Amino acid sequence: MRMNTSDKQILIVEDNNKNMEKLCEVLKDIKDVYIHKAKNSEQAYRYALEYNIDLFIVDIILNTKVFADISGLKFIESIRSINGYKFTPIIVTTSLEDPKFHAYSNLHCFRYYEKPYDYAEFKKSVVEALEYTTPKKAKDFYYYKDDGVIYSIKTKNIVYFQTNNRITYIKCKNGKVMPTPYKSNKKILLELNSKKFLRCSNNTIVNAEYIEGIDKSNRYVMLVDGFGTLEIGPKLKKKFLEDFFKC
């Protein structure tokens, strides 16, 4: 299933494969929704940083091998510490009763479901939660993962992205070029969620803040501070110019 820019994004954090499959089955016919799936808090946190999540569905127990595990609750606490997610709806699912008061009072969770629960009622809560999602904001940082480590770059310091041979290169304000794991242009734009980043060719996304001028006839972008020029793809020229003059 491919994600569209207009889709609401749900992140399900659940370590049990059967429970994950059941939740996806229950929610699959909700229109204009894309579901991300994470089995542990580390993977979930990476998704939260990379994407603009509209609703979190989190199981409190994410590691049954650990006695009295509440890693899901700790994940929620970490999410609430991120400005963009302070008021994002969170639905908690668990077999525990004790964390209920904490989840509602301190972490401001939207709903709390103790297993087993009614899936029809659960689905209604998901639809309701998606109606109350907060407006998405442009990301202040661009995140990427390399060798198991998550790195971040301030978006205001990114001049452009350029992809060659399945590697995404990031040209930075300080002149450095950072080779990063491949991401498609569509995925990069979804993660940035910013009108300032424009696709000017099949392999290049440019930050409009660094554009000094545009040569429409010869189809290239002139960048500030000696960062050179970038080609404008013939098929993308019209949309690129429209988006540039809007931002």
Automatic annotation (TrEMBL):
Residues 9-130 form the Response regulatory domain. InterPro entries: Bact_response_regulator, CheY-like_superfamily, LytTR_DNA-bd_dom, Sig_transdc_resp-reg_receiver. The keyword Nucleotidyltransferase does not apply. One of its GO terms (molecular function) is DNA binding. The modification 4-aspartylphosphate is found at residue 59. The keyword Phosphoprotein applies. It comes from the Bacteria. Coiled coil: none annotated. Gene3D superfamilies: 3.40.50.2300, LytTr DNA-binding domain (2.40.50.1020). Keywords: Phosphoprotein. GO terms for biological process: phosphorelay signal transduction system. May play the central regulatory role in sporulation. It may be an element of the effector pathway responsible for the activation of sporulation genes in response to nutritional stress. Spo0A may act in concert with spo0H (a sigma factor) to control the expression of some genes that are critical to the sporulation process. PANTHER family: RESPONSE REGULATORY DOMAIN-CONTAINING PROTEIN, STRESS RESPONSE REGULATOR PROTEIN 1. This is Stage 0 sporulation protein A homolog. The lineage of its organism: Bacteria, Bacillati, Bacillota, Clostridia, Eubacteriales.
